[in-house]
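Sorry to interrupt, but I need a hand with the structure work. Could you write out one complete protein record for me, on any chain you like? Just paste the record in under my message, thanks.

. . .
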Amino acid sequence: MTVLPTYFTRHSPRSGRASSLVLLACSSLVLLGALVALLSRGPSLGGADAKVQELSMYCAAGMRKPLEIVADAYHREYGVRILLQYGGSNTLLSQMEVSRTGDLYLAADNFYLELARQKGLVKEALPLAKMKAVVGVQRGNPKQIHSLEDLLRDNVRVVLANPDQAAIGRVTRGALQKTGDWSALRERVRKKGVFKPTVGEVANDIKLGSIDAGILWDAVALQYPDIETINIPQLAEGVANISVGILSDSQHPTAALHFARYLAARDQGLKTFAALGYQPVEGDVWKEVPQLVFFAGSVNRRALEPILQRFAEREGVEINTVYNGCGILTAQMRTLFQEEHAASNFPDSYMACDRYYLETVKDLFQDTHDVSNVPIRLVVASGNPKQIKSLQDLIRPGVRVALGQPDQCTIGVLSRRLLESAGIYDQVFEHNVVTQTATSSLLVPAITTGSADVALVYASDALAEGDRLEAIPIDSPLALAVQPFGIARSSVNKHLMRRLLRAIAQSREQFEAAGFQWELSSEDLSELE
């Protein structure tokens, strides 16, 4: 089935180019382009980022091996070299803050990435994997270390990573402070061992036998055949979540995001993380230029359009946006969901005009968040010729009413609910309704063209014609629509869509300028990675 939407917008990193015209104008170059692509392949990016030859990345020492493998594969495939600078997560963060240069930051724990975001150093973050803290000893465990108490024995030399430099040190300190064991182990290390700046140095000391035991990441230990690990209960909460961040100061953010998506893809970089013992997240499926499908109720269009355009350009993706009445959109979703070969047309996300219509397809969506709300108003021509004051005036003889169609759009459902609560729905519908529209956007023209005297309209839809219209408040708690955003359970681009929601969340002023009131909270933002 091919869906033919009422409103369809394609947001592409190649903004302003009509695909069909480009194909016609450039047909003579297609063969040459194909030959060039075989000889020299680069990321599918627009603008200046198309010529990027290298990116610089601050990388936590514990991520060295997977990053070298993935960066080498990416260089072979796309011709872009990733320059890796290693160090402890906090040390790298300090360097980034001073230099204000670079493109990507891979911390060994999200604590540092969130700190970088708070400092304005990181813009986007893509989750990668998890790892946990364990005790590492030489193969064969010659000192027979099996517990935390064994680390405190006089004949055991212990090394730890510095909590103020490396993520493993900070996580170890946090876990052992909760169990009351940190002070004793810290003093033991100070007297008989040493603090190291990175987890790699802890692992190397164990491997060389210069110390008997240390605490390191399980995935790092697996990269050393001469090291075996011991799980102790005191480190049960010593878990790190690993993400890669795009630096706010990057001169090539689209190219950086291209590599980050490759690194975080379930069928590319995350395969390497899994093979090396990390616990990867369920990443997105790799596409050079992801083709996203976004269904949105018509009321959202004015606020969403520029946000989607900016997002598509920065991420290097294309967003096929379908705007329509939510009744029509949800009917299309049900049809697409039931068709075997329609997955590519099913939306990756859906932003409804009101919770009502997201609720009707809630089994198909997850990660739902209320973004905004908008009041419903009685909208009349400037001067209010029929002197409409309240809902009760809609049943007066000779008053022509325009409503949304309840089976096709949210404004129709909410208008019916409002009129039913006032006890006048049947009377209005039987005697006064002169038109019913399939989308909210068609109600205002009914007033401006003079085909109706009054319409129940979203306040945001009336803004564009403010000098020709008057909007009359309705004294009812039901005169409000709340716009939720949901991500499709079937989407293979869930992390991309979470970044889109974060981009929407950072656009409060734009929504308010378009007539919406804000709903999304800071707690919602913390859940988006």
